[in-house]
Specification:
The complex is a heterotrimer of chains A (331), B (554) and C (305). Chain A has helices at residues 2-41, 56-66, 72-84, 98-133, 138-152, 155-169, 187-225, 228-235, 240-269, 272-277, 283-293, 296-324. Chain A has 12 helices and no strands. Chain C has one domain (24-50, 101-301): MetI-like (MetI-like fold, Orthogonal Bundle), CATH 1.10.3720. Classes of the chains: A mainly alpha (331), B alpha+beta (554), C mainly alpha (305). Chains in contact: A-B, A-C, B-C. At the A-B interface, helix 2, helix 4, helix 6 and helix 11 of A face strand 11, helix 9 and helix 16 of B.
Chain lengths: 331, 554, 305
Amino acid sequence: MLAADITGRKFTAMRAFVLRRVLAAIPLLLGASLLIFLVFAFTPGDFIDGNINLTAQRAAELKALYGLDQPWWLRYLHWLEKLLHGDLGFSMQYQIPVTELLGQYVFNSFLLASVSMVLYWGIALLTGVLAAVQPYSLFDRLLTLAVFAAMSFPVFFLCLLLIKWAAVDLGWLPVGGMLATGSDTRGWAYVHEVAIHMVLPVITLVMLQAGGLTRYFRASMFEALAMDFVRTARAKGLKERTVIFKHALRNALLPMIALAGFELPALFSGAIITEKLFNWPGVGHVHIDTLAARDYPVLMAFTLFLAALTILGNLMADIVYACVDPRIRLR
Amino acid sequence: MPLSMRLAIKLFIRVLVCSLSVVCCVHAETIRAPDPSQIPAEAKARKNTLIATIAAPQGVFNPYLISNGWDENVTAAIFGNLVGLDRQGKPVSDQAESWTISPDGLVYTFKLAKNLKFSDGSPLTASDVAFTLTFLYDPAYDGETDISLAHIKGGDAYKKGAATSISGIVVINPQTIQITVTEPGATTLTRLGGPILSKAYYGKNYQKGKLESLRALSNKPIGSGPYVYENFVPGQEVRFKANPYYFKGKPAIENFIYRITTDATRLQLFQTGGTDIESFPVNSDNIEQLKEMGFANIHVYPSSDFSLIDFNHKKPYLKDARVRQALIYGLDRKKLVDLIYQGNGSVANLPIAPLSWAYNPSGVNTFLFDPAKARALLDQAGFKPGKDGVREKNGQRLSLTLLATKSQFNDALIPIAKESYKAIGVELNAEISDFNALLAKRKAGSFDLATYRTSGLSDPHDGVKDFRTNENKFGYGNPKVDDLITKGNETSNITQRKEIYHQLYQVLANDPPCIFLAYRNILSASNSRVTNYQPNIYLGLTGILPELRLTGAK
Amino acid sequence: MRFFSSKMRQRQDIALAASLTPMRQALRRLRHNRAAMSALIFLLLLIAVCLAGPWFSSWQLDTTNALQSRQAPSMDHWLGTDFLGRDVLTRLMYAGRISLTVGLISVVLSVALGFVAGALSGYCGGWIDSLIMRVADLLMTIPSLPLLIALGALLSELKIEPEIRIYMVMLMLSLIGWPGLARMVRGQILSLRERDFMLATEVLGLSLRRRLFGHLLPNTVPILLVVATTGVAGAILGEASLSYLGLGVVPPTPSWGNMMDSANSFIDFKRRPWLWMPPGMAIFLTVIAINVLGDGMRDALDPKS
């Protein structure tokens, strides 16, 4: 009875908290969209300026056709009005609706990012905790060295090395892309083909990301192990494994929740350099292309999409915090 | 290392650099594959499919709606032009069998080749040409083709809504079309003779002022070119099949694929047989790597673009031609070309590539690197060295800002220019930005110098048109130059034009509108299983695509 | 094992602690850490070499030489020459000045900002928390790439000297980089705040400043040091990608990042290690040294160890 009552109260508080945060997200998104629009509007150059071969007269004609001759606030209002009608606009350079364009590429990025993310969080958790349990041991020192070696090694060389070794010399894996050229595979054969093409970029992303994260896990776990309750647990005669994984690890994970929240937009934003080097058809290069061409409808839509994900990620992190750490009051 | 040996190596390199830069440029060169038996299995297994490469197609496959050059490469395989180009950039007949131009240069009559068909089997007639040209005058047309430069009679009236058709376009019979223009122009022929859209297909639901129906067909193109579009996998590849209705007969290679590749991995992909034809930045490293593969035919051929530095003539200190000349004499362009292209480029002095019929450097000042002369010119212009070594005149220091994008070329240009100019008492600061911002800043006039590379130029007029007083945005003006540019564009007689441009280039050298930097070669490689591949910049890959063969194909 | 030995030492320290301020205690502990001291000495040496080295070099920073392009290391050029024939060693030393300053400044700035904001937010709660977190949210929602390009363009419009520009960019990087750290510190503080020792400070009526800096700060030091040490490495490498976008160091000024970036072909990688090994090793060793020093500082500062 009592327990159920407490859970119920907590649930009501949580619901109010979530509702409040979702409502607060609306002005935040509006503010973000205005800020983003301003940033783009005051960056030198627009879609027409990028074409060196146009005569001044034709350039002026085109600017009028695209509405680029209007003041920025009017363009912003137009954009906002369309957005409220559910219309994200039309890409200037790809000449298809923005949603269709992003749909073509975002999933590929998500696929790559999600698989690598699961892997590097897992690896970082395991190695970070092991290193913290035996601080300053040989394993810990070697790990530290490896982490910093990985960090001071440029992405570019890492990708090239993997391609040279696994794809060219050994011929085990494809050099790049997501499917073999001219491939018409369906069903499981398709899944298999994509999986094979994914191996190298996933390895790259894991190597790049796992290092830093390992350091965080190690520091956090190290902290947790030094706390009084761990000493108490040990004094109670609990098994070392129980102490580490049940008591210490739980506490060590707390600060990592916020980090996990930041990862949500990263799932969709595309790893620009890795995707480029492995020819992965992700959204990263579309982002760079549209930025270079000043294709505002795509830029605005995509940036806003990432903004919304950031807000969502933070919200989720806060909720998880509140769930796992009862000491945190919901406000 | 003993001194003598170091000296020997230095000498060797000097000889190497010199000999390579003499070899370069006008002539295409092919190094045959030393060991075709090394063709990778992956390529051998592809019996009737050719894989070429492309950087970033965006999926707008309509030759008049494209917004980047990659999509243009795709449409070039699908659509047929009335007028093509030969290996020197001169217009030649393509899907138009012949044409006549009236003596005053105002009336063009095109006769279409017989049995022209679109890839859906429907006939291509003069009314399709009329439809295409009329469409370009649509007031809602937002593509990059600027048909107004052809000055078709009645075009503006149609655009403004004063007429329902263009009076200058007359279909004489299904095979003949006559176009009247109001101003003669040397580039008008190629402007009128571009890719042809099918009226039946693209015009089906099209109304003047509403491009939506036409735009919706950008991912389902139909044309009369050598290949038929099959599909586009975004970020990965574009696939084609040979066009059975192609007017010169169905191309020999049944399947053609453009695969998307990037700088980092193009070499590896080519090496493993993933691609058949690929191009690379031209340098000795790449050539050597390709040679090691054994199965690669290596082609080095001249490009039609060039790199340059624009002056902002509105700045008072750049108005004096002597200062501009000094900035050319004082810049070690030879060093730049040697370092970047390693023998596969040359110093530019004319606004046209050496490949073109209009290229004639005799009598044009070559501005050989000469710091002493540069200093003397600056002295004459009244710029004297100040306290910090930087020259000044009436308190105006010669401290210049150079706009540049991030590229390997500029990574070499900036240090070299900074060093060369310091030696003649000119301070140089570089500003790096992306290309779009560079052009915007250049347009706004907030620069002294701006460097970039032109797009590929086929007609000499395209290289000089911006130097006319009323076209130039940066304050350059020279009546003699204006006069010669207009003359060069008024006639289509190539012998006359050659002479006019030769004069023009000499005048330009005395009153330089900009610093021409370098011409370059292009390096491409083909798997030796591809035969008949003789690349040329004006023809492009699609221009020679129907002639290619694959060894071992059925 | 380590656990017990440090316990022993702690007991010995208690007697000393009565006579020394916490700062002095920390310094004393640091001096006894041999690894940390070697790292410190290495870093000081590195800085000295970068500052003084170029005076002793017989090569100029920017002198290009077409005939000396990409020469292997020799008696003349100890670390060889780059593609413009410039001496790699000389450039490496100049680059060190830029890279080290850039790395340190940007990290110190963003850690300071992030910590103050996160600590205030986590500790005070209420409207201060809401305000700081909403500003952080807003800044975090905007992807950094377009923002950086716009800022870079803006800076070039302002005609700021190229030499100063890199520091401006770093400042801006810190300005937009603090929210992530602030949120992490806030999370840490939220759980620390509920601990007994913090409740005690409240009961004792200590001032906010003392509670924050005297008691909360030391407890967040471990995580801050991790952020800072990885951050310096990130900033040194990040400068390379900034340069790639044309926002960082404008050529011909060298930095470790852009020296490595300019050797970006596979052939250079395979055949000309002198182009990328020196800057790569410089970054690697610097990062390791900063990290070891950071670990030592943490051990020294952490009241629990």
